[in-house]
Amino acid sequence: MIETNPLFILLVGIFVGGAAGFIGSFMVLKRMALVGDAFTHVALPGMAIALLLQLDPMTGAFAALTLAALGIWYLEETSRIYPEALVGIFFATALAIGILITPETELLETLFGSIEKINLLEGFLTIILAVLVSASGYLISKKLVLGILSEELATSVGISRKKINLIYLLLVAVTVTIGIRFVGTLLMGALVIIPAASAKNISTSLGSYYRLSILFGIASAAVGVGIAATYGILSGPAVVLTSTSLFLVTFVIKKLVGRV
């Protein structure tokens, strides 16, 4: 069966990890790591509602994440000081509600991923979306980074910062949706943030930062999926612990190089 083919799962994981690493690189630059992690939790109530309505849970996740992206964008654009506390409270509440209403038989795999259930159609759709997300992120990358560095400069050269930020948050929503199968709603934020944080430890330029973020995302997913398949454990924790290990290695390298 395709859904249990390790090579097929590994291939999809590589694309998901690469897209998550690349999109997450901007989130780290925007200093939105904690908000980004909380953001992924809102997928759970969306999936739970979809399950109760006998719909595809990924549809519910995407709908909930899209609404969350619009909410973050609105708060970011209308508040002088970004209300991180409010966002944290809202998304923690969404996670709690999701846990309460998600059917018990579906709860574990929703929280921590269920790669063994992916089928051929889902796999190819995930790959296509990962490629589209990465390509779209690349197209807006210069404008997005310029807006991060200087809002005034971005505005002066005709860049619509509001539009770019909205597009980026929607790309995050898609990335989280396609990654939920692998690491679940509880840990997806880590796959978006940790590879980029690892890259930031040892990158020497913006270009190398992007490339390393993608590489660490791919390595986290590929090695984690391999470990999960080999030892019969949940894919989410395996992927995240692999990513954390890479972060620790790069952190040590940073410290050692800094002493030379």
3D architecture notes:
The chain has one domain (2-259): ABC transporter involved in vitamin B12 uptake, BtuC (Orthogonal Bundle), CATH 1.10.3470.10. It is mostly helical and 260 residues long. Helix 3 (43-52) packs parallel to helix 5 (84-101) and helix 9 (161-202) packs across helix 10 (206-231). It has 11 helices and no strands. The protein has helices at residues 6-29, 33-41, 43-52, 57-78, 84-101, 104-112, 120-149, 151-156, 161-202, 206-231, 235-259.
Question: Globular, elongated, flat, extended or rod-shaped: what is the shape?
Answer: globular
Tally of helical runs? 11
Q: What is the CATH T-level topology?
A: ABC transporter involved in vitamin B12 uptake, BtuC
Q: H/E series, N to C?
A: HHHHHHHHHHH
- Structural class by secondary-structure content: mainly alpha
Q: CATH superfamily membership, which one?
A: ABC transporter involved in vitamin B12 uptake, BtuC
Q: What's the overall average pLDDT, rounded?
A: 85
- What percentage of residues falls in helices of 4 or more residues? over 70%
Tell me the domain tally.
Answer: 1
CATH architecture: Orthogonal Bundle
Concise account of the structure shown:
With 260 residues, the chain is mainly α. The chain contains 11 helices and no strands.
Keywords, please?
260 residues; ABC transporter involved in vitamin B12 uptake, BtuC; 11 helices; mainly alpha
SSE blueprint:
Layout: H1 6-29, H2 33-41, H3 43-52, H4 57-78, H5 84-101, H6 104-112, H7 120-149, H8 151-156, H9 161-202, H10 206-231, H11 235-259
